[in-house]
Design goal:
Largest sheet: 7 strands, mixed
Number of domains: 2
Helix content: 25-40%
Strand order of the largest sheet: 5-6-3-9-10-4-11
Number of helices: 11
Low-confidence stretches: 179-186, 244-261
Distance between the termini: 34 Å
Number of strands: 11
CATH topology of the largest domain: Alkaline Phosphatase, subunit A
Radius of gyration: 22 Å
Order of helices and strands: EEEEHHEHHHHHHEHHEEEEEH
Length: about 450
């Protein structure tokens, strides 16, 4: 069967007079008899996700107290416990300023994502990785934002920034809608009315049924599971396309002098994040991309609770530390939401089965933030994590302390694990050729 059905096979149809295609996940018929590699003997492709969140976590409350395996998460990261064996924690690393201005909320991302702060033309780590693993997919990389903006930490240079897509609906159209010649165009505008008339799965129905008949029992079950998941996602997104029912009590208020960005309400950001996670997981599973960048809360996050005036950022600077607890209570609330969201993102990837494993097994999710202690804009002890095994190239479930070392060691380690042919990375004092060997398999 593997000689008749190619991994590159897609189901094609028409939507509004335009061709659409739906990629297929890794079915057993694409794999070797052990389900550990593709049928031709090549390994599953590795994948990479940058997951960025502004403001980090309070020092002393995220770091495990023990090194190596078997660690317990610090207070603010306890939500991640279910995936401990797939997570690596890196503590103690810093950004060397080398006489440059501290640059609140900008220096951390520049160094962690670009290896240094002296040369603004440096590409970000996701784009360096995409040069190695993203050249044979439809999308070289995908960038999303969860808080309503196009802020992105993905760039080819200082002036060639890849804008993040804030709308899950637009991301859906971009991945599963018409085949655009320039899929990375920043001015992409989907046609919601076309999507409202018919779903992508409906458009490929004629090919879908006979194709399923050619599959074995386990592949049929897996494909139906995949299609059901995609259909549920379509239904959820379709709600945003429908005209709401009239409400007699509804009136149009006077125009406001200032309008808040609805994406900054954390409940909205959480919904967007969940949908983005599902879409990206499907994109990876279907070979549409192997590189993505997620901006959860933005640099210097201004996420806020519904109805609240103070933001996460304001709390980090203005809220008093509870003397009994030792931390800022409202800041902890936001930190817990961040940890829960990171767990949910990783679990979404883990939930897609591939052979005898799952999507997370071949992906590295790299968590980074903009500093070590938001209250003082410190660049010391920046929280850093990886989730996923990169096809077994990373050992996981390990806490590594590299106190005083540049954060560039972290980025260099991730790049080498993903096969990037690079031996040295970073600028000035942040330049390094030392990887974190504790986690290299």
């Amino acid at each position: 069967m593997s000689s008749e059905i190619s991994r590159r096979r897609v189901l094609r149809g028409m939507m509004g007079g335009t061709a659409v295609s739906v990629g297929l996940p890794f079915l057993d018929c694409f794999l070797n008899t052990n389900g550990t590699a593709l049928a031709n003997g090549t390994a599953f492709p590795v994948g990479y996700v940058s997951w960025f969140q502004g403001l980090g976590f309070a020092p002393g409350f995220w770091e495990p107290k023990t090194l190596g395996s078997g660690f317990e998460f610090g207070h603010h990261l306890r939500a991640l416990t279910p995936l401990r064996d797939k997570i690596n924690i890196f503590s103690g690393m810093k950004v060397y300023l080398d006489g440059h201005a501290a640059g609140a909320h900008t220096i951390g991302p520049a160094c962690v994502m670009q290896g240094g702060i002296a040369d603004p033309t440096l590409p970000s780590i996701d784009q360096i990785i995409a040069d190695t693993i993203g050249t044979r997919t439809r999308f070289r990389s995908l960038e999303v934002s969860c808080e309503g903006s196009q802020e992105s930490f993905s760039r080819r240079s200082a002036t060639a920034i890849n804008p993040a897509e804030p709308s899950p609906l637009a991301l859906y159209a971009r991945i599963f809608g018409p085949d655009f010649k320039d899929p990375n165009a920043a001015d992409f505008t989907p046609d919601p009315q076309v999507m409202a008339r018919a779903s992508v799965l409906s458009m490929v129905q004629d090919q879908r049924a006979p194709f399923i008949k050619t599959l074995g029992t386990s592949d049929k079950a897996r494909l139906e599971e995949y299609f059901t998941s995609l259909r549920e996602l379509e239904k959820r997104l379709a709600l945003d396309l429908q005209k709401p029912a009239p409400l007699a009590a509804c009136t149009i208020p006077n125009k406001l002098d200032e309008q808040a960005n609805p994406g900054l309400v954390i409940d909205d950001a959480l919904v967007n994040h969940k949908l983005h996670a599902q879409l990206l997981a499907h994109a990876f599973a279907c070979g549409q991309t192997q590189v993505a960048s997620v901006n959860f809360g933005g640099s210097g996050s201004n996420l806020r609770r519904p109805g609240a005036q103070q933001t996460f950022h304001m709390y980090t600077h203005e809220e008093q530390i509870d003397q009994a607890l030792g931390y800022q209570v409202n800041v902890e609330w936001f930190s817990n939401k961040v940890a829960e969201s990171l767990l949910a993102f990783a679990k979404t990837f883990e939930g897609i089965r591939e052979g005898d494993g799952n999507l997370l097994d071949r992906v590295v999710v790299m968590y980074s933030t903009d500093g070590g202690f938001a209250r003082t804009h410190s660049t010391e002890n920046i929280p850093l994590m990886t989730i996923g095994k990169a096809n077994g190239r990373l050992k996981t479930g390990i806490h590594v302390s590299a106190k005083g070392d540049t954060s560039s060691r972290f980025g260099l380690t991730v790049m080498q694990a993903l096969g990037v042919p690079i031996g040295t990375w970073g600028t000035e004092s942040n330049r390094t050729s030392k990887t974190l060997t504790d986690v290299i398999a």
